[in-house]
Amino acid sequence: MAELRDKVTYAESPPRLVERSKASLATVADSMLAEVKHAFATGSLGALTRPPGALENFAIPQDSWASVHFPERAFLSEKIVPGHGGYWDGLVGRTPFVRRTQFEAWLAEKVARRTDPHASPSPAHQALIDHLLGLALDGLLPSTEIERIARQWRLSPFESNPPAEKFDAVKLPRWTLCMAVSWIVWRTSEGARAAMDQYRSHCWRWVRCRRTIDLGSERFEVDGEELITLPPLNLTLLELADSEVTNADELETLKKMSISAAREELWQSLGQGEFSARALDADERVSEIPAREWEHLKLASDRNGADYLVFAHAPLRTAYSKVTVSSTAVRDRWPGQSRSPRKTDEQIKSTQLASRRIVFAVDDKARRILFDDGPELQGRGFELFFRLALQFRADLNSGVDRSNYGFVASRALAQDLQTLDENLRQRVMRARQSMQQQFEALAGYALDEEDIIQSSNWKGYRLNPYLLETGLQQLGRSTQTSRQKVKTSRLLVGAQTIQG
Fold first, then answer.
1. pLDDT for 348
2. Distance between CA atoms of 384 and 426, rounded to whole angstroms?
3. Considering only CA atoms, which of 293, 314, 220 is closest in space to residue 12?
4. What are residue 447's phi and psi, to 5 degrees?
5. Residue 224 in contact with residue 138, Cβ under 8 Å?
6. Hey, which residues does 362 pair with through a beta bridge?
7. Residue 16 CB coordination number (10 Å)
């Protein structure tokens, strides 16, 4: 609680807003004290004392936690003070304690519940979430700091995506025009899924907001950040986002074509009758759009962001709405990229331990990540890997179990790398592709996409905990040999180190 209290300075904040924030923090503290008290009152934890000169510990009766006055004070003072009444009057001056092993087991269960997306939050957990969201909404703390506090308190990241396996675009029989174009551009299930309205409605993002707060006698404007779900995506917004991308070179290796080109190809295929589209016509009847009409149809979007079609000669009248195409037909016309199956955490762990460990070294001066088998990362690839390596080193030095190595939240990582949130995933994909190509060419080793950089929809990104970092001199090769190997790999398979 001290950190939450000290983090917020309330500089130039309206007094009523300060009062409301402090009251929210007090609710968090009270809820946490009540939760710990409940653990002792129900026997989940046992409190002990040892009188001066005694050789044995004495248990504080479980039922006394419900009968004495304000037992929570025992958590705020080193010794029991007068005024509790009942059994505790005989404990004045003693220091209550709990067995460490028992407390750690209880705490581990609480932490596991906090990070379980299916578990209902406890009152203390919910109070903390509400308080953090309120700090961001009222402009008292930036969302990056909120996410850092959440990681420290072992909360699930606020900015997050749902489990990808629950939204498999390939399994849908029909796609919207936006999903179809996304597939044509990226040729991956991830690309189509990113345009799914159902998926986007479960993706949470921080956005800046300005709102008017009315506290009775006071009314003022506040600039803050709000956590919202992604709105539906239409083709107009998709093309606009494509035109505003500043790191186009970074995305080029992943895209088969531009969004506008993909849209033109889709229109052409529909116009040539290669497959058909289904929609609601002007009379709200489900119908197949005749192939001959596509050359006369133009794209439009309504105030809710939904795509619809109009005839060029009648742009103010809706011709077709809720347009869909067969997902199978789209994938047959534009085959997807082949990708190796994703390994589970246990498969990754057993593979790395049983067969080999990938060894790397960081060349700070040359800003390169060097691998024992020859591959290397430079430029933005170096920046991405190095940022994740900082978390990797911190967990290694602190003795954290490898299965519990921390992830770097997507938003925090994007901010550290000074890139757009929506571009971060493409940067990771490009780094993975570069390493896969180089390892195959130089070591004859087929990397899985999670062998070096791992990702979690809820947590972010991290280095595989079973990587091994060593010094440059211990890497087992010279810098000159490294450069020659990478140069050869480019000639053989076109592998590219990341230059940004």
1. 44
2. 12
3. 220
4. -75, 140
5. yes
6. 369
7. 15
**Quick one: 78 exposed, middle or buried, by C-beta within 10 A (0-12, 13-18, 19+)?**
exposed
Can you spell out the DSSP letters for 351-373? HHHHT---EEEEETTTTEEEETT
Mode of pairing for the β-strands spanning 204-214 and 219-229: antiparallel
Enumerate residues 6+ apart whose C-beta is below 8 A from 13.
21, 138, 140
User: Can you give the pLDDT at residue 457?
Assistant: 64
φ, ψ for residue 187, nearest 5 deg = 60, 35
CA 139 to chain centre: 22
Burial of 240 (0-12, 13-18, 19+ CB in 10 A): exposed
Residue with tokens 């742009």: 315
Residues in the chain: 500
- Name the band, by pLDDT with cuts 50, 70 and 90, for residue 235: confident
Matching residue, tokens 């070294």: 361
Encode pLDDT of 56-91 as tens digits.
999 999 999 999 999 999 898 889 999 999 999 999
Q: Is 390:412 a contact under the CB 8 Å cutoff?
A: no
Query: To 5 degrees, how large is the angle CA 327–CA 333–CA 334?
Result: 90
The partner residues of 308 in beta bridges, in order of sequence, read 300, 321
First to last CA, the chain: 42
- Segment 259-267 mean pLDDT: 93
**30-41 mean pLDDT:** 93
Whether the pLDDT of residue 210 is over 80: the answer is: yes
